[in-house]
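Protein modeling request. Please complete all fields; requests missing the sequence field cannot be processed.
Requester role: graduate student
Desired output: 3D structure, token encoding
Chains: 1
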Amino acid sequence: MQTDRYAAGLAMLEQVDGRGGEEVLESVRAICPDFAQYLVEFPFGDIYSRPGLDLKKREIAVVAALTAMGNAAPQLRVHIAAALHVGCTRKEILEVIMQMAVYAGFPAALNGLFAARDVFDGQDGQKV
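Delivered output (128 residues):
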């Protein structure tokens, strides 16, 4: 069921990642359609749509949080790509990940750096 929150979330998801997240949403829908709806409505329809932070700042925060978690590499790669899409530079992303070594430890930061390398290499073949 498409709600106003869902429509707002899809529009925001398109702004964040430039692709609308359909591949991820379809894979989640195949397992649990309700979760796919929540995935659009809450983070993107409710939180990302709030005033107070622009998308670049939000993505910096998400990259930091996912790096600190240390166990969310697939999601981290998605949000590193999104951060680039909304205007973050590679240098900014690397600095955020390095900063997480102080708070989350070197293993989490290393995992984050490897995720960044994968995204950067996948975008244009440039080596970091």
